[in-house]
Amino acid sequence: MKNETIQKKRVEVSVGIIENDKNEILVCRRNKKGDHLFGLLEFPGGKVEKGETIVDCLIRELYEEVDINLPSSSSSSSSSFSSNDDSTSFSLIKLIEIVEFEYKDIICNIHFFKVNLQNNTTQQISPKPKEGQPMFWIKKNEIDYLQFPESNKNVIELLNQNKI
């Protein structure tokens, strides 16, 4: 019998670690039963589509998942944006971490970005879950007590050490 190696599919993923002006991080809970990693918490993001940069993927996913509307970008991994009324500015900072993680059937290259929400008015910035997922803000020092996928371990440690 031949010893065959099955080549796993590689998937590029962009993830946003969104921090508000209260030093809280936005997290979502995977809530589709039968879904990969059901019940765990995650940072908003998703798979890079064909012809899309990792930054453009992040911008699209943040809009689709949590209704944060950032303008299209260049292919740069570091950008700053302002809303039309200049009340809110978003700073997309360089990649914090790239994690290669092997699941049973795929290999994911996860690109973690830091997104700071800076509000120049007294109005509260309120991302909204657009896919029905539970979503909430947590203090950085509480993140270690929550259940995230194993692939997020390095980033969680960086958050705990206040290096992000």
From TrEMBL:
Instruction: Give me the reactions it catalyses.
Output: 8-oxo-dGTP + H2O = 8-oxo-dGMP + diphosphate + H(+)
InterPro entries, alphabetically?
MutT-like, NUDIX_hydrolase-like_dom_sf, NUDIX_hydrolase_CS, NUDIX_hydrolase_dom
Q: What are the coiled-coil residue ranges?
A: none
Q: Does the keyword Transmembrane apply?
A: no
Supply the alphabetized keyword list: DNA damage, DNA repair, DNA replication, Hydrolase, Magnesium, Metal-binding, Mutator protein
Molecular function GO labels: 8-oxo-7,8-dihydrodeoxyguanosine triphosphate pyrophosphatase activity; 8-oxo-7,8-dihydroguanosine triphosphate pyrophosphatase activity; 8-oxo-dGDP phosphatase activity; 8-oxo-GDP phosphatase activity; metal ion binding
- Please state every residue range assigned to the domain named Nudix hydrolase: 8-162
This protein's cofactor list reads:
Mg(2+)
The regions listed as transmembrane in this protein's record are none
Q: Please name the PANTHER family in this protein's record.
A: 8-OXO-DGTP DIPHOSPHATASE (PTHR47707), NUDIX HYDROLASE FAMILY PROTEIN (PTHR47707:SF1)
- Its name, as the record gives it, is 8-oxo-dGTP diphosphatase
Q: Name the source organism.
A: Dictyostelium firmibasis
Organismal lineage: Eukaryota, Amoebozoa, Evosea, Eumycetozoa, Dictyostelia
